[in-house]
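Bench notes, afternoon.
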Amino acid sequence: MASMPPYSRFERIIDRTTGLFLAAGLIWLPAMMILTVGDVFGRYLFSAPIPGSRELNELMLLSMVVFGLGHCHREKGNVKITLLSDFLPARARAFLDMSAGFLGMFISGTLAACSFIAGIDEFYVHTSTDMLGIPLFPFKFILGAGCLCFFLAILIDFLKAVHSFFKVLG
């Protein structure tokens, strides 16, 4: 019987976390649809659009997209071009996967850190949307949390690539 990799429990936790983040992001979808339909009907039937509907849709879309990043990565929903890597030996493929994982973790980790820092700045500056005056700092934290979840999802694939790289060596 093959032993379980040391990161398998961590992987299950990340899978649950990305699933919860996805559910939190999908909560906004019906609200966006209702708001858009109401805005269109108000605009064309009564010449009275819903004030601030565009701002609300932008904020809800941000939440929906960033909360789905980690789950999309875990489900292999991101585009991956394997035209050349399919012909490489297993060790070279594992090295490329490690490199891509490291780069992805660097980018998503940097985005998460910068978003949290921007959220703290926005909290003290009190920046808000133009029309409705909705504070922007919570959405910076949402962006940071989504990027952090994406980072953790990439980390799992990175650990798998490292494991497979050293498994091929030995």
